Amino acid sequence: MLSTGIFPDRLKYSEVKPIYKKGDKLSTSNYRGISLLPAFSKIFEKIIYKRLYQHLATNNILTKEQYGFRCNASTEMAIYALINNVLASLNNKLMVGGLICDLQKTFDCVNHDILLSKMEYYCIKDIANKLIESYLRNRYQRVVINDDKLNKYYSGWEQIHHAVPQGSILGPLFFSAVQALYDFTGEPGSAELSITAGEVLTVTRQNVGEGWWEGINQAGQTGLFPAAYVEEVKGSQPPAMPPPPLPEAFTDPAQQWSTEHDPWGSQGDQHQQQQQLGSQQQSCEAGDYWDDEWDDDSEGGGTQTAAWTNNATHTSGQVPKSGSAGDVSSIGKSDGKGTVGRKNFNRFTTFVKSGGESYILSAPKVSVREEDKVYIYETEKGIIWSPVTNPYKCVVASPKKESKLKGLKSFIAYQLTPTFNNIQVSRRYKHFDWLHERLEEKFSLIPIPPLPDKQISGRYEEQFIEHRRAQLQEFVNSVCRHPVLSQCEVWQHFITCTDEKRWKAGKRKAEKDELVGANYFVALQAPERPLNITDVEQETEKCSKFIHGMDGALKLLMATAVDQVKKHQGPYKREYQRIGHAFSALGLAFREDDSAEAIRVTGDTYCEIGKLFEEQPKADWEPLGDVLHLYKGIISSYPDILTVHKGALQKRRECEKLAADSKMESSQLSDVVRRTDVVSYALLAEINHFHCERTSDFKLAMQNYLKEQVLFYQKVCKLCSVKQTCVFDVACYQDNLGCSFGEEDARLQIIFLLFYMKHQKLITVD
């Protein structure tokens, strides 16, 4: 079957049994048809399914929004994604709308010719496509009905001209494939190029990696896109623009090789390249995006356009911390000294995208100034970054609304004041966004703290501005305490530059920085002691498990914090005010009695307690939530960081194997091992810093939370005490235990004091 491309005709016959659901039994719409296929057919279908699904999944042909009929996906995940998006929009005060479509008889409406043409687009050709066509064509079915006496009645055999086979494991997969769009949306900030159906592209390289091509669209944008999404245009029309010229030093590849043709498309051409390509820091359009007088803070920055240059030594890839990717085509030189073996692209792995493979195999020839060097030390407490000699802080304060163009354009400016010079600088949110992009691009093994969430509508509300300021302060505090981030040039420029001309010059200098991504490893000065690869793997695995556990715990506590804020400002407040209004009504009814005023004041007290509940989250839950937001963003970067490091260790093992087979010189292997150790030292230093900061931050956050909780209940107790003292006669009102309200209030004060002292002891570390 697999060699001939012919599916057995005897296995194409199915019987449809109507199963009654509910309602009128004489109405055909109240029956569900169940298709029964030959049992032996399912064996062949399983074989075809495994190969087809592996091809579709490996090449990312099925859109990520396709939740049905896929492994590790379900309708529950689709509902979760929908609810998450809706809640995120509502939290940001955005308009939310939904468009729900229901396809009737979905499996029955699939056209065989369209399905086969889609398979052709997905590189399922020749014998594989012929087998799928043979599976779909010349299928027959008949209806079988059982009466009450278990007699069977058969219809005649009818040929199926469309629809995917029901009752088959291939049916849902075929439906998913035919529903896949030809439009491809690249990840923001990456080297991927977004394309739309019908768009004409100029292909410049077809040997990027398995299933990917490089090309130029009609707008002049260059990037990578799936080869399965495009087809060659037959005709003599010239392209929209000529392809870029070849590098001056370009030569044909010395070696090319290809595997035997695989009709399922699981193998792609792989070529050894001679020229190392890089990616520009930013396109000309994006370079001055905030110099435009009509820019918008709500967008948070410009859109970067990926481009390729002929710089043989520049590689500007970075770890995709926020769904972004950097250089994916950095290829070593072919002088036989710096390059080791053929580079494996492995379907756009994170290690390749980060530029890590290029660094491990051949150190970039980038000059490093002394002030740019970063030292790593091995101490009794572990591997650490070089400590900051002059620590400092930076205060984010005085957010205010400013305008330009005579009031046509308005924005919020935040004032930053570092303690080492006390000179204030003004920065907008989009300036922070630009800084964040620069830091992410430069430091591939350092998780950059997250910025506050963006907001489009109502972003000048006072509460929102203050909350954003508090979260920006968390971001600034985290950067200031980091031994590497706090000393880097782009950060120092950000918090100190006050002159507009010097600001723009420094901005462009940062965008042209060569020490980014994998190139930054050249600036690291690590200890000479070789690391044991097994010990390193144990440490990284331990970190990976910790991050996984912490991620789940943070999500749970963040959800709890959000829930508590809503309850304090909603149900808790309403309940106390409802009680207060009830007592006030009783006091009004007793207005002729001596106790009327006391009961009315009791009602007012409950209403004031309700107001205390409404204001309390600003003191405890919201500050704790800001810390959780900070660390949720930090730990979200660790999976990609650990993947980059894992790729470096894997490349080292490959080189060790080549050396064992006498295919690599020992000097080359020594260089590879040394560069791998540099990456490992940097990762271990960052993990150590992360744990130190985590311990300190959460200790302080918990102390503040518990302190504010105690103060809150002390306020409630004091409020009750004052009201009782002013209204009730302590000598006349005794509780069931025989103590007066004044005595009970004293007991409550002692209880809260003991509670506070207890928690202080629990969270205080010597």
From TrEMBL:
Keywords of this entry: Cytoplasmic vesicle, Membrane, SH3 domain
Start and end residues of each SH3 domain: 173-235
Localization, UniProt: Cytoplasmic vesicle membrane
Biased composition, class Low complexity, residue ranges: 265-283
GO biological process: DNA biosynthetic process; endocytosis; endosomal transport; plasma membrane tubulation
Residues covered by region (Disordered): 234-339
Domain PX as annotated: residue spans: 392-502
Presence of keyword Metal-binding: no
Acidic residues composition-biased segments: 288-299
Any one of the GO CC terms: cytoplasmic vesicle membrane
InterPro entries xrefs: AH/BAR_dom_sf, DNA/RNA_pol_sf, PX_dom, PX_dom_sf, RT_dom, SH3-like_dom_sf, SH3_domain, Sorting_nexin_WASP-bd-dom
Major localization class: membrane
Entry keyword Magnesium: no
Any one Gene Ontology molecular-function term assigned to this protein's record: phosphatidylinositol binding
Ranges of biased composition (kind: Polar residues): 304-321
SUPFAM superfamilies reported for this sequence: DNA/RNA polymerases, PX domain, SH3-domain
Family listed: Belongs to the sorting nexin family.
Protein name: Sorting nexin
Species assigned in the record: Coptotermes formosanus (Formosan subterranean termite)
